[in-house]
Amino acid sequence: MMSVTAMKERLAQRGRMTEDFLSTCLDGRPLPPRLRESMLYSLQAGGKRLRPVLCLTTAALCGLDVHKALPFAAAIEMIHTYSLIHDDLPSMDDDDLRRGKPSNHKAFDEATAILAGDGLLTDAFWILAQTGVEPVRLLAAMKELAHAAGSAGMVGGQQWDMLYTGKESISLQELQTMHAMKTGALLRASCHCGAILAGADQNVETAVAAYGTALGAAFQIADDILDLVADTATLGKPAGSDAEQGKNTYPSLLGLEKSREMAMGKAAEARKALSGLVGEEADFLCALADYTVMRTA
């Protein structure tokens, strides 16, 4: 069993690997200076880099050198960052703060923010094409990532979120489906793609993907809880914005305590999915599942 301290150290170390790569990913390319500045503003705004770390870790778990998986992992973070820029726009969630800083459209302008998101999404596929693995593995991982990020995944989930916002009540199944698309799909793909890049066998792929699915659910429930109980300074984004915008959340539907119980249950599901896998990487993933629901930001 990995300690919380050791887990946080590994999370931070692999997060720094990702950040070092991202800091140079636009170098040598003829971008308009304002667009480059806007893209890097959000890309280098911090965060735990959870998604790329998951990709790097599952790749290592399945025997691939993390450095070989780094371009693909960084591309996942670029896609995640584009989604945050667009989600904050006035036509979407209309949030003025992200990771303790003005949202991209506040720091620049709406048009530049839209283009910065477009650039990050598209450039992500240019970056991941540089991943040093067999083409058949890279193609399979790219297919998985594109599906998770697109209309049947993250983008579709955001559309459901907008449709459900302000609606007096939705079912638990509707809420779970929406979040499985909006948040869970990219988290699941982050795990699954690492295993695909490493050439893992089907049983391991299935286990890792199941871990990612459960982790994604736990992460979203914890996020909904934090929006209710934490403050803006801790979150780095406006606290209480879910309720203010009329969003349906796990606490609004189930109450705080039942939401906490569900989050813990999903973390346990994530750990159970990896029960047949051993070693430091598996221990890290299990510790990370617990941390996901115990975090304060």
Short account of what is shown:
The chain is an all-alpha fold and 297 residues long. It has helices at residues 4-22, 33-43, 50-61, 66-87, 104-107, 110-128, 135-149, 154-164, 172-198, 202-229, 232-235, 241-244, 250-254, 256-273, 280-294; strands spanning 97-98, 101-102. Helix content is 72%, strand content 1%.
Layout of SSEs?
Elements (H helix, E strand, L loop, with lengths): L3 H19 L10 H11 L6 H12 L4 H22 L9 E2 L2 E2 L1 H4 L2 H19 L6 H15 L4 H11 L7 H27 L3 H28 L2 H4 L5 H4 L5 H5 L1 H18 L6 H15 L3
Antiparallel strand pairs: 1-2
Please explain how this structure is put together.
This protein has 297 residues and is an all-alpha fold. It has one domain (4-294): Farnesyl Diphosphate Synthase, CATH 1.10.600.10. It is built from 15 helices and two strands. The protein has helices at 4-22, 33-43, 50-61, 66-87, 104-107, 110-128, 135-149, 154-164, 172-198, 202-229, 232-235, 241-244, 250-254, 256-273, 280-294, and strands at residues 97-98, 101-102. A two-stranded antiparallel sheet has the order 1-2. Helix 3 (50-61) packs across helix 9 and helix 7 packs antiparallel against helix 9. The model has no long low-confidence stretch (mean pLDDT 92).
